[in-house]
């Protein structure tokens, strides 16, 4: 017997990255295929974090359930980290909640803030999971185009008044996936003022916090008074190459954190205690490992951007993340050019349309391969016929 699913599930759009996986699974010549479509960190987790995990596995208290909010030592480490890196004071007990990956927060925040028909304002393009999280919460998405012209920062003054009145969340993501742009202090100040004026929660998805080139990406919570109107999502996935470990957190406005704790205790499980202990070691370290990971990505960015420019491609150096946002040649959509690249070069790239309509003329390339492979990509691209 086949059971009917709920309308909420029926309305979920197919997962963009799952679709990419299916496309990859159908490729015949997988031995020579190069996957630049997904952002799965390829560098190893720092050895001292792995050693911390090994020791923590033997700790008896880690064999049982951990507190829903997170272990106290991990919460305290997060607070110390934000004070040390961003000079932001956080109350560990009231202003932090840990998750099994920050994507849990992306899903949970709309659930605790939105009522049916409320709007979430975000960018176009954006991380595809935003569409699903808002839809499942019964909300609607209003998107502001971000382009080279506006430095990939949304122009908040262009939001129609009627949309603002119906909005509950301004959802940002800087450093930005897929464009690689970073936010300025001035923009974050405008975002906080917008939230304050309109009683809208400002959220920054800070997944690529540690991957900024030239200067350290700014935290939304560094803006004066931001904790009154904002929360920030963070993760250890990119900072320490711990994507498979599934550990992240949200911090900021106390009322939002308390509501998230209430929701989280009913819907999600806790993070394995040994992983929290290992994560604590990462946050309390001197951050040399995190800087090394960033530097590797920066070198790869420089290799790929230089190579693409030598082919005459329209490409900017990303300011952060481990992605390159590339405008495709005239006469092609991003989808069509991605298909051409796969057919002629056996390289998989992400069509920009998967991130929103403003990305229709772009493709996204990942830096999660070593320089030798990226140079091979350039070699293959040089032979493309279009």
How would you describe this structure to a colleague?
By secondary structure, the protein is an alpha/beta fold. The protein has two domains: 129 residues, Aspartate Aminotransferase, domain 1, CATH 3.90.1150.10; 237 residues, Aspartate Aminotransferase, domain 2. Helix content is 39%, strand content 15%. It is built from 13 helices and 13 strands. The strands form three sheets. Strands 2-8-7-6-5-3-4 form a seven-stranded mixed beta sheet, with helices on both faces. The chain has a four-stranded antiparallel beta sheet with strand order 9-10-13-12, with helices on one face. Strands 1-11 form a two-stranded parallel ribbon. The longest helix is centred in the C-terminal third of the chain and has 23 residues. It is globular. The mean pLDDT is 95.
